[in-house]
């Protein structure tokens, strides 16, 4: 009988082992399914985050483009606002009583408006280029004539025919000058 028990025990053990293997396989399959579901959910979350980030970038690009367009569109608004008082003074001068106006009062009014306009331009960074008596510089001067003047060295600006202007560090219009040979 003891031999039969020994023989029967391995059979029971095999059945138990098969049952345990089946349980482990089911558990592994469940863990595999759960793990696959976990990775799938994480992939979907990353996909959604990426789509939101792409949408945010598109919105940012649109907003920046609109801001740049508005900046370009209204860039001169500040100077226009500062020139309005100059325009007002010109309108007042034109509306003045022509019978009581003298040449001196007209010149005085024009001079005041001129100074007011120069102040606005100075404030914004516009400056006249000094040319007369300075060495000729092709970056800021445009030579339109040459002359021989013993009072000036060769290559020096003798006469300024039209003022030149710089806006901050950029030449807006070079000065038209006459240069000594």
UniProtKB/TrEMBL annotation:
Residues 35-45 have a biased composition (Basic and acidic residues). SUPFAM superfamilies: Coiled-coil domain of nucleotide exchange factor GrpE, Head domain of nucleotide exchange factor GrpE. GO terms for molecular function: adenyl-nucleotide exchange factor activity; protein homodimerization activity; protein-folding chaperone binding; unfolded protein binding. It comes from the Bacteria. Keywords: Chaperone, Cytoplasm, Stress response. Its main location: cytoplasm. It is found in: Cytoplasm. Residues 1-45 are annotated as: Disordered. Residues 22-31 have a biased composition (Polar residues). It holds the Pfam family GrpE. PROSITE patterns: GRPE. CDD domains: GrpE. One of its GO terms (cellular component) is cytoplasm. One of its GO terms (biological process) is protein folding. Gene3D superfamilies: 3.90.20.20, Head domain of nucleotide exchange factor GrpE. Belongs to the GrpE family. Homodimer. Participates actively in the response to hyperosmotic and heat shock by preventing the aggregation of stress-denatured proteins, in association with DnaK and GrpE. It is the nucleotide exchange factor for DnaK and may function as a thermosensor. Unfolded proteins bind initially to DnaJ; upon interaction with the DnaJ-bound protein, DnaK hydrolyzes its bound ATP, resulting in the formation of a stable complex. GrpE releases ADP from DnaK; ATP binding to DnaK triggers the release of the substrate protein, thus completing the reaction cycle. This is Protein GrpE. It comes from Brevibacillus brevis. The lineage of its organism: Bacteria, Bacillati, Bacillota, Bacilli, Bacillales.
